[in-house]
Amino acid sequence: MTGLIRRLAIAALACAAMSAPARAQEDWQEWNAADELGWVEGAADAPVTVIEYFSPTCSHCKEFAEDVLPVVEEKYVATGKIRLVMREWVRNSVDKTILTQARCLPKEDGLSYLKDIFARQDEIFVAAQVGTLPGTLLIVGTPYGISDREKFDTCYQNMDIRFDMLEVDKSSEHYDVHASPTFIVDGTPYAATNAMMTPEGFTAFLDAELAKSTPATN
């Protein structure tokens, strides 16, 4: 879906919402893999797709990214078992600012940028409190080409990026996401439990989902 088509589609939805404010979220449907607006790791034909709704300022999301995700990438993504999709769940203005920068980059770079953000999360909290967030994000963004305030502002003000984020927000409303991280498998949302936030617990969760997708043999 092109940026123009996306803008027109969202404008049409906005008009429909004004004339029919009770329009149900059930009307929303998953877009296909070619139109995926999240950051994707893994083969399109993997037997199970796991969608993670995350927030860049969520400490549990940082924990998952640093402690659990490397195991998932090695044992499930790289081996073709799992397709992992990361979609944002925006909690605050800091999230929004970070995500406009991540979405300004090619998808692979955007994912690396987000991992760097998690590594600097404490520093970013302090920067947001003292009013130096743009400068801190420029430090993170410089290796990816967002190296000056003009480029930073261009990404922040990019309306195509904002429309993409709005579409992702609609997807989170469809799944009734109210905490991060939340995982979606085959249309079913799973709020992260304490067990799922460990490599052992999350791999057990994935193994159970993979078992559901494997046809029974006689």
Overall pLDDT level: 88
Q: How many distinct beta strands? A: 5
Supply the CATH superfamily name: Glutaredoxin
- What's the architecture in CATH terms? 3-Layer(aba) Sandwich
Stated plainly, the CATH topology is called Glutaredoxin
- Rg over CA atoms: 18 Å
Widest sheet, order of strands = 1-3-2-4-5
By DSSP (H or I, 4+ residues per run), the number of helices equals 9
Element-level helix/strand string: HEEHEHHHHHHEEH
User: How far is the first residue's CA from the last residue's CA?
Assistant: 43 Å
Shape: globular
Provide a descriptive summary of the structure in words:
- The chain is an alpha+beta fold and 218 residues long.
- The chain has a single domain, classed as 3-Layer(aba) Sandwich (Glutaredoxin).
- The chain has helices spanning 3-19, 59-77, 93-102, 107-119, 121-130, 133-141, 149-157, 159-174, 199-213, and strands at residues 39-41, 48-54, 82-88, 182-185, 188-191.
- The chain has a five-stranded mixed beta sheet, sandwiched between helices.
- Helix 2 links the parallel strand 2 and strand 3.
- It is globular, with a radius of gyration of 18 Å.
- The termini are far apart.
